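Exercise: predict the fold of this chain.
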Amino acid sequence: MPPHSPAHPEVALNLALAVITSSNAPILLLNGDLSLIAASRSFCSAFEIDPVAVEGRQLSELGAGEWKAPALASLLTATAAGNASINAYEMDLNRKGLEPRRLVLNAQKLDYGDDKNVRLLVAVSDVTDARAAAKVKDDLIRDKAVLLQELQHRVANSLQIIASVLMQSARKVQSDEIRTHLHDAHHRVMSIATLQQQLAASTIGEVGLRSYFTDLCKSIGASMIRDHEQLSLKVSADESVTDADESVSLGLIVTELVINALKHAFPGDRKGKIGVDYRSNGQDWTLSVGDDGVGMPKGPQSAKSGLGTGIVSALAKQLHGIIKVVDTNPGTLISIVHSHVAALNSEPPAVLGARAI
């Protein structure tokens, strides 16, 4: 092998020494017996090692003996023999009068083509500050989550108080029209209170929709259905989960559509069923509320819309969903369909005007 060839052991060693000397990262070059050949300036600076006294010393002799770590020495020896490798090995460096430092080491055997002179390249990272910063961040996130849940509980309790006041007011007024409006307001406030309770009980950032819709519909049914033998309200959903913000919008849509069905689909003590269904496939999903009631009104009344119509339309637009209304004869099926392709193309939601909400 030509003496000046890059593959020649002496040339390769000189190249390695040049790289280590100029490196900004803490790096060591060791012989197979764990004696030091070279250390980068950054290593000496970071760990207060005299660079003049490095060459030829054993790793365990560096500093005041803080690098004397039997477990590390065993792993390095096995790596030099080709029987192991060191990937993200962690150790504490304890120096007198200083805070312990958490180090992460990686080591590999270098192939010089010279089996008699084994070389090890050791990279050292001090992750103490990064770990401390990560812990502070995790603590802040945990504290924020606790505060958020407490806030949600308080909001839910306040909404229940407001709902109670509305119901007391409804009992006192003489006007049937005002009483009806107060009852509607009570139902909406109670439903929003249920939403808050569900969010407070859910993992922050993740809400299981099946249990969420089930509990929500139980709350609506408890406040609006007098005879559960006459009217039933059931939920069918897959195992989908979503974030808290989207679940609020979906819950409000369910609330408005279910209340709409209870108010309009079963006049004159008519028996019937209301079903809430949610299915997703990747980024596409469909939320449906259907009933087997009297269906959509005919004539001039079909063009009228109420407050609920505006709420559902606004929420559907916010979710990039399309509203579909179908006369199922008997009954009505209203669906909010979210298509990933339609959302990308900013397709506007349809107008919900078949039945006043």
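Check your answer against the key: Residues 9-126 form a domain with the Beta-Lactamase fold (CATH 3.30.450.20).
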